[in-house]
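Reopening this one. Same input as before:
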Amino acid sequence: MLDIGYSLSRRFPDPPQTDYRRADVRALRHDLFSGDVYLADTKADRELSTAWGWVPVLDFAWALCDIVERIDQDPRGNRSHRRQYAELDFTESSDVMIFERRFGWVDIEADWMPGDEPPLTFGHSLLRREARDFLHDLIADLADLHDGLADNPVIWDLQARFPRM
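Same output, byte for byte:
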């Protein structure tokens, strides 16, 4: 089972004068909602997480949904033996998460993991569903915390681009 989660940072609060209704893509993806994120294999009791406090959590959710689609370009889908790769880089460091799909499975690892630790592995359809659920749940949480965010057209477009499955 896959669990994707986050925590918002108290060290890097959003500017109090932010108009969330009018925030642009750059602000939403890079300047707001700092914290940490994790992907956990609850069955194996393993986790891949950040502990930096400055990861833009909305950008992470957005990028994760993009990556899941990017590694699904082979028309053969789950029957494809060709490896498909994508990287999620973190803007304030050189750290990356690496996603590799082969057949219907996606291996996820990060360059900060110990070298002898195996990657987390999930079915592609599960990763897609959970990534989209995480995005929508995160937006709902953030909209509860920040007046006007639910009325932002960028958020509407994002939710339409990656609907719940």
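So the earlier flakiness isn't reproducible anymore. For the record, The longest helix spans residues 124-145.
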